Amino acid sequence: MLFLMSITSVSADDTFFETRIRPVLVERCLECHGPDKPKSGLGLHSRDAALKGGEMGLAIVPGKIEESLLINAIEHRDDLKMPPRGPKLDASTINDFKTWIQTGAAYPDSPISATGGSLPDRVKSHWAFQALRAVSKDFSPGVNPVDYWIDRALFKNKMKPAPMADRRTLLRRASHDLTGLPPEPAEMQSFLTDNRPTEMAFAKQVDRLLASSRFGERWARHWLDLARYSDAKGYVFFEEKDFPWSFTYRDYCIKAFNSDKAYNQFILEQIAADRLGNTISSENLAALGFITLGGRYMNNPHDIIDDRIDVVTRPLIGLTVACARCHDHKYDPISSQDYYALYSIFANSIEPPLPPPLEQVSKTKAKTDAENKIREDYLKLKAFVDGKYDQLIETARRRSGDYLFAAETARKAPKTEDFMLIADGGDLNPTMIVRWQAFIERSRKEKNPAMSAWNRMADTPAEKFLAEIQNTIANETNLLLKSKLQAKPPANLQELANIYTSALLQAHGVWREYSQRALSAGMPAPKAHPDRSIDSLRQVLDGPSSPTRVARNPQGDLTLLPDRASQAQLQALIGALEKSRRAKDAAIRPQMLADREMMESHRVFIRGNPQNPGIEAPRRFLQLFETIQPDAAYPADSSGRLELARSITSPANPLTARVYVNRVWGYLFGVGLVSTPGDFGARGNTPDHPELLDHLARDFMNHDWSTKRLIRKIMTSRAYMRSSYDFNSNAIDPENKLLSHQNSKRLDFESMRDSLLAVSGLLDTKMGGPATGETIDFKFRRRGIYGRIDRLNLPEQLRTFDFPDPNTAAVERSTTTTPAQSLFLLNHPLVQAAAEGLVNRVIGNTNKPDQLQNVISEMAKLTWQRELDGQELDEIKRFVGFESNSGNPDSMRKKLISIAQMLLISNEFHFID
Amino acid sequence: MQSEYPDQMQLPGLPISRRELLRLSGTGLPMLALSALEAAEIPSKAADPSQTSPLAPRKPHFAAKAKHVVHLFMNGGPSQVDTFDPKPMLRKYHGKPLPAANLRTERKTGAAMGSPFEFRKYGQSGLEISDLFSETARWHADKLCVIRSMKADVPNHEPSLMLMNCGDSRLPRPSFGSWVTYGLGSENQNLPGFVAMCPGGYPIVATQNWRSSFLPGAYQGTYLNTQNSQVDKLVDNIRNSQMGLDAQRKQLDLLNRFNRRHQAQRLGEPLLEARIQAHELAFRMQMEAADVFDLSRESNWTRELYGDTVIGRQLLLTRRMIEKGVRFVQVWSGAGQPWDNHDNLEKTHRSLADQWDKPIAAFLLDLEQRGLLGETLVLWGGEFGRTPVAELPALNGRDHNHYGFSVWLAGGGVKGGQAYGSTDEFGFAAQDKPVHVHDLHATMLHLLGLDHEKLTYRYAGRDFRLTDVHGNVIHELIA
Predict the structure, then answer these.
(1) Chain B residues in contact with A322 (beta carbon < 8 A)
(2) Is B274 within 8 Å of chain A by CB?
(3) Mind telling me how many Å the CA of B121 is from chain A's nearest CA?
(4) Which of residues 832-871 of A touch B (CB under 8 A)?
């Protein structure tokens, strides 16, 4: 049961430290009191260092607040006032520090993100990070390795395995597991009358079901849970609500499962199809929907990237990497640097507004016109957005002093979160102010000489400005800046800002002229200006870490255009493009991802705060997997998604195959060998049959990562074919970890809905294409996977039946039982339609059923795939009132529909043994 | 309409002999099954519904003061300086700039704008409240615990709604009501545990406001469009359009007989029993829901007290649900964001307050008279407040303000008749004893007997909380 409350297992003191103390240390103290040459010799980066104290004495004496100098300093009791910059710590934080010291100053020793650090060995020894065990046994053809390990464990525990289930149960089980639909009576009949031994006959059925197109529809739906698939974007401002081509990804997945695409290729394509060039056909670009079909998080780029990091890690390698966004993972060896290495990969990927068509566009006039119109609207949008970016950058340079001053003001103000502002046309751009603010922070950490005068004077109180400026001018090493300062010493920070504007622009002008001259002389573009004073100043305006290095979003965004007028223009342009893309003759395109034209490097955001950049985070895969990193550094001219995908699908990656095999096992047995399919880390559960898991994973990779082969292997085992009845006292193994019997499963929402339609003859099996209806709408008769999913507005009914929230990857579904589900079954028009359909299917539209008993038997056969026994028939006859046959065909029909509904909502229909 | 199985808790409901069980088993189980059955005890993992229903009532972490929550959501953001936070200085500066620069909010703001509404002292406590809520004030000032120092994170609607409702501005997290229902279950299995009412459509960001996110779907809020007053339009699937309750009872009895036979062959499976119970609950829910939503069962006097308006009906429905044990009811002002008065504030705020004032007074009075106020925690407020300065260019409306705003609590163990904390002299930012939304959540959970640090759910590798890593219980708010 999933709804039991859990209480964190870490000690209360550690939790207190991690939630109340460590974040403050990281944010306010470690910049100076870190491991690298700590100020006054006091390091606060570990318990040992903190207890050792510094030049001024003991900073922390556990249990003794009064003797701890640190409290003295943060309370500003005398001259030593810490932290020296920014606001004083608030009273509740100071109280937290007192509590912390009073209770013994617990300080768990996992490393602090901003400073890097190596992975503790104890975590490296975690089972899931070890290489797969070598195949230890050769199995003769008759032995299924699944049974080898399961039976051994049962024997060791003196457990009786359940016998094989009867044929009816087997085929129902297999049909639902593979296609999400019950067997048709003819299919059941053919299996029941197959003279071969059950094992052989069943293997034939498994092959038949695996070959059915319904298989891909069922298994792609499992995958869409992981891909947090939605046809709508979620809450958006200026764009259309729906993704124009989300269905291409859904159809890609269905096709991939039906054609048994190798799983490693499946992953490669979903992460980096755009980088695979001619090795794949262009229709596979649709695979990138895996990344792009996430929510829009109110256009916050950091959240969008976070979602993308999560979707390539938790579902694929079973690690909760997104936990490391604000600090190193608490339990697993995943650092903030790991997180931001992945961040950097996705930050360098964009969604092009006009991806190439998925198929060759035929040359009819209508199609050509449609394409031309799209191109025209796209170019209009592009010209507008480019112009706005150029203007933003140009203004950021021309008014650099104003930005500096505004950023400094913002820096000193109490921190508030980034928010959307509506500005006037002539205002400074609020996002650009934040960028300058981050630039100033960085320049302080890196002691950027071009900014030293500014930073020094910004820290000087206004009344001491005039005295201090003389020292600053005397110490200035940048000659251009120095000459300007000397010419007219500024009287306040605003004047200094103006001098910066002039010096920066002058240096930038000189540099441009210099590089242009080189270019027109046919020489390569220079990397630096020979005059260091010029070069360091011009870097502020166009160097790699300049605030003006804005990563362009081809569709523009709100932060680029904070004023209403430009927003309206942008909205109109996007609207026009959306309209032409939706036109009847417009080509279908993939929900694509592509690399940026120019790669940007990114840094760790300390505590996840984009305004607080830490150390560089070069693009790479998790450090944990040193051996499966590519040999060379990630290429400078691409995002690195391909390299990432190769690391994930590397046969040496100990997680990918294990996680997938476990997931497949879970779909077939109701629960995985590892019962936490989304967490293979330290907090996840260990596998119940570790050798079996490793064998299946290795065997899977050795056989072309074939999903169908893996499924066949598992399903033809005796373990799969067992009865779900527990013949042991369930006290020995109440959770059935040893698998002495199968687990019974309840139909999930789509299986339930599709099965209702299927047995009543209402199911439309048309495949693929745009979503044309709501799954919950009784008039929509296609399989549930083709129904429209809107993550902002998911019908309550879907959640009622445990359909997962499509906002984040769902690695498993919960199973709840509620009266709201029953109300649906009792009263929803969909169920009523199915009940009527079932009656119609059996008797046609006539109101004169000749042989009532046959009708009832036939309906039962369709829903339950079995004959009713005499007692059951009597029950129903009594319900109908056979004896007092009134002869009223209308009321008879009503009763038949009522019986049909009873069959359709029965436990026998909804549970699979 | 008596079920043939009056006591559904007993297992098995269908008298079935061992011999018959074996005979039945023959249809589903091979021969070996029979001998195994003869030899072994039949395992009976009899379903205990309290273990299987996600909405079964659960004990809080410690003794609770409140059992229910009613959240009156003034979506759009009501102005604190026009309702519960008097700022006479604003009138002095009316039309002039404030001495200090305006804090940055979503739009450009200009001069100070004095409140067009009069504040008066009410009750023994002398709590100052504006004329907009004079009825509520006159009757209940001494019950209100006004928090004047609320603060949120940003001045935009969407993230602030998410923060107030789900404890996080942007990331998909379960709503407050879902957390509470997850923590405590519900006391009436015949009604939804968590109800969200909004007339005429959804507030912005729609159903996300009452989503269960990664908590099981059973904890999501059930939405009622209170523009409708007929029960079958209010609640999904509450009535069968083809058959009456009598016919349905007979159908359900037939279903039960088949389900019991089916179950008798599978005694180890608790979900089967849970499903059988759920059907019975659902059947009863049809009647109970019809009853609870039928306002004609109230006396004329009571209906007049609340007023025959959408808001009045919503609050009367709320009381009826609380009385029946519903855990969490959220009542919205209307679709979109009615309180978002960037202009025309005087007129619109007055008309909105007119819709709410009398029904709130009636609601609190009614709860009190029925002895329910003590166990019902009522929260009034928006997702943020409004600026004391006017939005440019006109001088008749206010921008969003997350730096400081007011909400009030009443009932449910709250210390009434007090104004807690304060904003600066103009009402712009929380100054004395600031209360962040996380603190409000932590305090409300505390009143419900839940420790906000212990009410956790394991998801994606983390133990999530409503308050994430934040939140302090404010004990001064508690009686």
Answers:
(1) 460
(2) yes
(3) 33
(4) 832, 866, 869
pLDDT tens figures, B47-99 = 344 445 788 899 999 999 999 999 999 999 999 999 999 999 999 999 999 99
Q: Which of B238, B247, B278 is the closest to A817 by Cβ? A: B278
Q: Which residues of B touch A93 (CB under 8 A)?
A: none
Q: Give the model confidence (pLDDT) of B394-403 as tens digits.
A: 889 999 999 9
Pairing mode of beta strands B385-391, B109-112: antiparallel
> Given the structure tokens 């003991």, which residue do they identify?
A58
Is the whole model's pTM more than 0.90, yes or no?
A: no
Question: Complex ipTM, two decimals?
Answer: 0.81
Q: List pLDDT tens digits, range A436-473.
A: 988 998 898 888 999 999 999 999 998 999 999 999 99
CA A859, A860, A861, A866: dihedral to nearest 10 degrees? -170
3-state secondary structure of B100: coil
The Cα–Cα gap between B375 and B65 comes to 6
Task: Flag whether residue B209 sits within 8 Å of chain A, measured between CB atoms.
Answer: no
What is B319-388 written as a DSSP string? HHHHHTT-SEEEEES-SB-TT--SS-HHHHHHHHHHHHHHHHHHHHHHHHHTT-GGGEEEEEE-SSEEEE
Q: Which residue(s) pair with B122 in the sheet?
A: B127
Distance CA B249, CA A452 (A): 83
Q: How many other C-beta atoms are found inside a 10 Å radius of the C-beta of residue A632? A: 7
Strand (E) or helix (H) holding B292: helix B270-292
Could you tell me if A80 lies within 8 Å of chain B, comparing CB atoms?
Answer: no
Contact B151, B400 (CB under 8 A): no
Torsion sign over Cα A516, A521, A527, A528? negative
Measured distance CA(A361)–CA(A367) in Å, rounded: 7
Choose among B293, B445, B299, B294: nearest CA to B369. B299
How far apart are the C-alpha atoms of B20 and B39, rounded to whole Å? 16
**Residues B192, A793: C-beta atoms closer than 8 Å:** no
The span from the CA of B438 to the CA of B295, in Å, is 36
Taking an 8 Å cut-off on Cβ atoms, the answer to whether B251 and A901 are in contact is yes
Closest by alpha carbon to B242, among A320, A96, A831, A49?
A831
- B30 and A163 within 8 Å at the Cβ level: the answer is yes
CA separation for the pair B153, B165 (Å, rounded): 13
User: What is the DSSP annotation of B5-52?
Assistant: -S-TTSS-SS---HHHHHHHHHHHS-HHHHHHHHHSPPP-----HHHH
B-chain CB neighbours of A7 within 8 Å are 454, 456
Residue to mutate among B269, B286, B287, B400, with most A CBs inside 10 A, is: B269
Count other Cβ atoms within 10 Å, centred on residue A413. 11
